[in-house]
Amino acid sequence: MVKEINNRGLACPQPVINTKRALEELEQGTVISIVDNEAARENVTRFAENAGCQVEVTEKNGEYYIAITKGEGNKEVAIVKTSGETAPLVYLLTSNTFGNGAEDLGETLMVSFFNSLLEKPAPRMIMLVNSGVRLAVKNSRVLEQFNKLAERGTEVIACGTCLDYYKLKEELAVGRVTNMLEILENLTGQDKVITL
Prior knowledge:
Blueprint: E1 2-6, H1 14-24, E2 29-35, H2 38-50, E3 54-60, E4 63-70, E5 86-93, H3 103-117, E6 122-128, H4 143-151, E7 155-159, H5 160-165, E8 176-178, H6 180-187, E9 192-195
Parallel strand pairs: 1-2, 5-6, 5-9, 6-7, 7-8
Antiparallel strand pairs: 2-4, 3-4
Helix pairs in contact: 1-2
């Protein structure tokens, strides 16, 4: 079976996500992932090789056709599928941007981060402090991703003091309001905490 995926014009990590989903649907066969930039070519190729698949890349008119063969006797590493179970992870988000530097780039990277997070087991909790609370309010660029994580069991809590400071308490669209004591309890609990 051969399945073709058009990833032209898509920003990272969407070509990898689309390719991963297509491979999850196959017991064995070939997925041809078509990308139009070198970064996507490298990322999709690396993902497929790490998943134990055979990879062959062909360039045609500035586009890359990445033929990924799953099964058929090649050594296979299991591709992690998302499930309804949450992982023992707590994310502490202290900003509405990912990293320091240009704010618009940081916002774009945060969208990319959440799109990628949806491909992993859902974290047990996401805690939002400081400008991180902006991620869970109406018109947030990642509100759809937050809702999907909440549906999969992720608890989203937002600092009440921070919501008050930014005058956003009435705008909270996912999760619930919390306080510093609860945040501290989760920071010092048994789950692994990742701070962004």
